[in-house]
Design goal:
Blueprint (H helix, E strand, L loop, with lengths): L6 E6 L17 H15 L6 E4 L5 H11 L3 E6 L3 H9 L6 H10 L3 E5 H5 L8 H17 L5 E5 L11 H10 L4 E4 L2
Parallel strand pairs: 1-2, 1-5, 2-3, 3-4, 5-6
């Protein structure tokens, strides 16, 4: 990809499955979260010539990709698995349009999809694919933003995640790298 004026890294919670206890990102909060993300991206002046990098899951990732695309930025979706497996594990939710929204991004000329194994090789034994994806997102953001630093926008409840490679891990590494971070609490 060509050099970008601004690089925005996004990560965050997926939309809750029905009945999730405790709730983390309830479906009914989508509009409020989208509006808060759009305000922050507007404050950063995100738009044409910029690059948004995220993972492509339902919730925070797709919202960031859609908003940035609509503002004229290029979008890079870095997936831990091939598309069909990724859709099953991280996007599909009965009764919603998340899968269709992902497919719209995938078909958009301003969006590029990369698969972890194709770019980084097979997952090393004992490694977590989601944690590796976080590291890949952050490393790609650092490379694309040179000589500057990427901006980080997280949708996060400030609590530990459900497993390895979640938003808490992403925040921890981004903070250790001293990246500018804005957090939207769903």
């Amino acid at each position: 990809m060509a050099s970008s004026r601004r690089v925005i890294l996004g990560s965050g919670h997926r939309v809750d499955q029905p009945g999730r206890k405790p709730p983390r990102f309830p479906q009914e909060k989508e509009t409020a979260v989208r509006d808060a993300m759009a305000r922050q991206l507007g404050a950063w002046g995100a738009g044409a010539g910029d690059l948004a990098i995220c993972g492509g899951a339902n919730g925070a990732d797709i919202l960031l990709a859609e908003i940035c695309r609509d503002r004229g930025a290029r979008v890079l979706l870095l997936l831990p698995f091939p598309v069909e497996r990724f859709l099953q594990e991280s996007v599909e939710m009965p009764g919603t349009r998340w899968s269709a929204r992902f497919r719209e991004l995938e078909r958009d000329a301003r969006c590029e999809v990369r698969i972890q194994e194709e770019h980084l090789g097979p997952l090393p034994p004992g490694a977590d694919p989601f944690e590796r994806n976080n590291d890949w997102l952050l490393q790609t953001g650092l490379e694309e933003a040179k000589p500057g630093k990427p901006l980080v926008l997280l949708v996060w409840n400030h609590l530990p995640g459900d497993g390895a490679g979640g938003t808490a891990h992403f925040h921890e590494v981004a903070d250790r790298l001293e990246l500018p971070i804005e957090v939207i609490k769903p």
